Amino acid sequence: MLNEILQTIPQVVIDGLTLGAVYAVIALGYTMVYGILELINFAHGEIFMSGAFIGTAILIVLTGMGWVSAVPAIVMLITVLLLTAILTGLLGMGIERVAYRPLRNAPRLIPLITAIGISFLLQDIVRFIAELQKGNYIVTGPNLFKDQLSIKASSISSIFNDASIKTSFVIVLVTAVIMMIGLDLFINRTKWGMAMRAVAQDRETASLMTVNVNKVISITFFIGSALGGATGVLFAVQYGTIDPYIGFILGLKAFTAAVLGGIGNIRGAMLGGLLLGLLEMFASANLTLLSGGVFGAEYKDVFAFAILIIVLLFKPEGLLGKPVTEKV
Amino acid sequence: MKFKKSLALLLTGSLAAGMILAGCGSSGGDTKASNVIKIATQTPLSGGSATIGEAIKLGAQLKLEEEKEKFKDLGFTLQLVPYDDQGDPKKGVANAQLIGADKSIMAVVGHFNSGVAIPSSEVYEKYAIPMVSPANSAVEVTTRGLKTVNRIVARDDFQGPAGAEFAVNTLKAKKIFIVQDKTAYGTGLAEAFKKAAEEKGAEILGFEGITVGEKDFNGVLNQVVSKKPDLVFFGGIYAEGGLLIKQAREKGVNVPFLGGDGMDASTLVEIAGDTIKNTYITSLAGDSTKIEEGKKFIETYKAKYKKDTESYSVYGYDTMGVVLRGIEDAIKANNNKKPTREQVRDAVRGVKDYQGVLTKVSFDDNGDNDYAKVFIYSFKEAKYPAEYVDEVSK
After folding, report:
1. Is residue A304 part of a domain?
2. Contacts of residue A283 in chain B, CB cutoff 8 Å?
3. For this UniProt entry, which residues form the secretion signal (chain B) (predicted)?
4. A228 has pLDDT over 50
5. Are A297 and B219 inside 8 Å of each other by CB?
6. If exposure means fewest CB atoms within 10 Å of the residue's CB, which of A37, A267, B1, B252 is most exposed?
7. How far apart are CA B77 and CA B36, in angstroms?
8. What are the tens digits of pLDDT across the range A82-105?
9. B239 to chain A nearest CA, in Å?
10. How far apart are the C-alpha atoms of A231 and B250, rounded to whole Å?
C-alpha cells in the first residue's frame, strides 16, 4: 500500500501545488480585507470568476485579431494578466465604494449580506453576458500552453512513477509565487503597506496620524481584487474551461485556506492555500487505498476539512495567526 | 358505406360551420366543442432546455397537422395546446391542473425532464389523462403503477447495461475504471453500468466520485493512471465529462472513454477539443439521418419551420403518432363517438406495434416501450454531433 502511494506522490505533489497556488492567491484577497475591515468579502470568489472571464474574453478577442500567433505566448499572458488585474482591481474598488463603505459603521452582519448579494449579482451578470455572446455560459478559451513536460522522478528513486506536467503548470506556479512575494514586499516594505498595517491595527488612531483611511481601504480592495482577477486568468489558462459558478466552490475553499493559515495573516493564507491543495489532491488520489475501498475519492473534502477542524481545535487562530493579532 | 358516412359527417360539419358563421357564433357552439379533441404538449419552452422543448413541440405539431384530415373524416377536429413547463416541477403541476380542467384535452405529449414528469403525472392520473413521454428516462416515471404514464424511450437502467455490452463485447474492455459525479443521474448510471459490466466478466478497477462544479480532476485521474484500465466509464454530465477527458488525455490516458446521454452535447466537444477522440456515448435519442423516413421527416420539418431538427424533434413527432393512434382506436371502439378520457387512457396503453419514423412502439403493463433502444455514438474527431456506430435493443 505504501509503495503504491509513494509511486504516485510526484504527480500528486505537482497537481496539488497547482491547485494550492490558486487557492493561496485567492485566499490572499480574503485575508487582506479581513485584516483591515474584519469583513468577510464573500464577493471575492466572484471577482476571481470575473477575472477568469475578462481574461478569456481578451484572449479570444486577441486571437480573433491574429495577435496570439504573432507574439510569444508568455508576452501575451503577461499582457492579459495586467489588463485583467487592473480591470478587476477597479471592479473591487467599485464594489467597496457601493456596497461596503456606506455600511462601514453598520452592524457586522449587514455588509456580509451585501457581499452575498454582490456575489449573486456578479454571477448572473457574467452568465447573462456570456450567454448573450456565445449562447452558452460554459466558455472554453484558446489553449496557450500545450506542451507537456515529463519529470523523470523514477530516475531519482525507483519507488516513484514519472510525473507529467503541463507547461501552464509551471507558469501558474511561478506567477502565483511572484504575486505572493510581490504582495509580501509591498505590505512590509512600502509606505502604503505600512499605512495598510496601521489601518488594520487601529483605524481611528491611524486616521489621527494623517493616514487617509478611505484611500487605504480602496487600495486594499484594488490589490486584493487585482490578485484575484489575475488568478482567474491563471485558472482559465490551466483548466481551459470556465463557467460563472466557479467562484463559489473555489472561493469557499480559499476562504477555508485563509482561516487555516490564520485569517488576517498574509503568509498564513499562502501556506494554508498550498496545504489545502496538497491535502485535497492527496486525498482524492489515495483515499480509496488508505481506507481499503470504503471511502472513495468523493470524500476528499471530508478528509481535508477534518484535518482543518483538528488544526483549528488545537490552534484556533490558525497555523500562522497570533492570538493577539498584528493583522495584515 | 363508410365513405358515405364520412361524407355525410363532413357535410353536416360544414353546415354546422355555416350556421355558426351565420349566427355569429351565438349558437351551435356546443355541438362543435364536443367534437374538438385537444392534445396538450408540456415541454420547457423557456429557460435552459427551451431548444429541446420547442423541438418536441414542433415535432408533435407536425404530426398533428398531418393527421388532421383523417380525424376530420371521423368527425373530430384536432387541436394542439402547447404548455410551457419551464423545466420546473411546480410549473408542470400547475399546468397539469389546467390541463385536467379543460375537458376537451384528451392526452398529453411530454415532458422533457423526468423531475417534472413525475409530480405532474400524479395530476394526470387523477384526471385520467394519458401522458406519453418522448424523452423521460428516469426509472421511477413508469414504476409507480400509474395507468396514464407511458414513454417511448428506453429507461436509464437500460442505458448502463447497453453501455456495458458495448464496452465489453465491441470494445473488448477487460479492465474498467468508473468515475461518477455523485448525482442521482450519474451514480445511478454508473452503478447500472458497473453491475452489467461485472456480469459480463469485466474487472472494475475503481469506482470513484468527483464533485459537480469543480474543474480539477487530477486526483482521481492519478488513480486512473496508476491502475492502467483499458476503458474509463464516466457517469455524469458534459461539463465535468469534457474536462475529465481533457485532463486525462493530458496525463497520457489514451484509452476509450464511455459516457451516457448526459454527455450528448456540443459543449462537450467545445470543452474537450481534439482530446475528444476515442470517446463513446450511449444515447436514448436515435439518429434520424440514417434512414429514409428520417430524412423525409427532416426535410418536411425544415421546410415547415425553417429550423434544423434537434435530436428530440422526431421523438415529439413519434409520440404524437402514438397518442393519435390511441385516440383513433378509442374512437373506433366507441362507435365513432367521442371517447371518455378513461377510454383514451386504456387505448393508448394498449397500442401495439406502432411504427413511427424512428421508433417502434408497444407498451407493456408499466407503460414502457418493448422496442426501446439505446444508441451508441462515437466521437472520431472534434465535431458534434457524434457519429452513429451501434444500437442495442432491450
Report:
1. yes
2. 219
3. 1-22
4. yes
5. yes
6. B1
7. 5
8. 999 999 999 999 999 999 999 988
9. 8
10. 22
Q: For residue A24, give Cα distances in angstroms to A17, A31, A246, A302.
A: 10, 10, 16, 20
Nearest CA in chain A to B266: A136
Name the nearest CA neighbour of A246 among A21, A31, A50: A50
Domain with CATH 3.40.50.2300 in chain B: 35-154+290-363, 157-283+375-393
Percent of chain A whose pLDDT exceeds 70 = 92
Task: Tell whether A249 is covered by a domain.
Answer: yes
Look up the CATH number of the domain holding residue A222: 1.10.3470
Regarding the domain with residue range B35-154+290-363, which homologous superfamily does it belong to in the CATH classification?
Answer: Response regulator (3.40.50.2300)
Nearest-neighbour CA in chain B from A282: distance (Å): 7
Please indicate whether, in this complex, the C-beta atoms of B273 and A249 are within 8 angstroms of each other.
no
- Determine the residue among A48, A138, A144 to mutate to test chain B binding: the one whose Cβ has the most chain B Cβ atoms within 10 Å: A138
Element (H, E) at B81: strand B77-84
Q: In this structure, are residues B155 and B142 in contact, taking their beta carbons and an 8 Å threshold?
A: yes
CA separation for the pair B357, B309 (Å, rounded): 14
Give the domain range for residue A79: 2-314
Does the predicted TM-score (pTM) go above 0.90?
Answer: no
Residue A322 inside a domain? The answer is no
Alpha helices by DSSP H, listed for B75-155, are 89-101, 114-127
**The three-state (H, E, C) secondary structure of chain A, written as one string:** CHHHHHHHHHHHHHHHHHHHHHHHHHHHHHHHHHHHHCCCCCCHHHHHHHHHHHHHHHHHHHHHCCHHHHCCHHHHHHHHHHHHHHHHHHHHHHHHHHHHHHHCCCCCHHHHHHHHHHHHHHHHHHHHHHHHHHCCCCEECCCCCCCEEEECHHHHCCCCCCEEEEHHHHHHHHHHHHHHHHHHHHHHHCHHHHHHHHHHHCHHHHHHCCCCHHHHHHHHHHHHHHHHHHHHHHHHHHHCEECCCHHHHHHHHHHHHHHHHCCCCHHHHHHHHHHHHHHHHHHHHHHHHHCCCCCCHHHHHHHHHHHHHHHHHHCCCCCCCCCCCCCC
Cβ–Cβ under 8 Å, residues B290 and B141: no
Domain B157-283+375-393 has CATH 3.40.50.2300: yes
Residue A328 within any structural domain of the chain: no
Using CA atoms, how far apart are residues B215 and B203, in angstroms rounded to an integer?
A: 28
In this prediction, residue B16 carries a pLDDT of 55
The domain tally of chain A equals 1
Q: A235 versus A325: which is more confidently predicted? A: A235
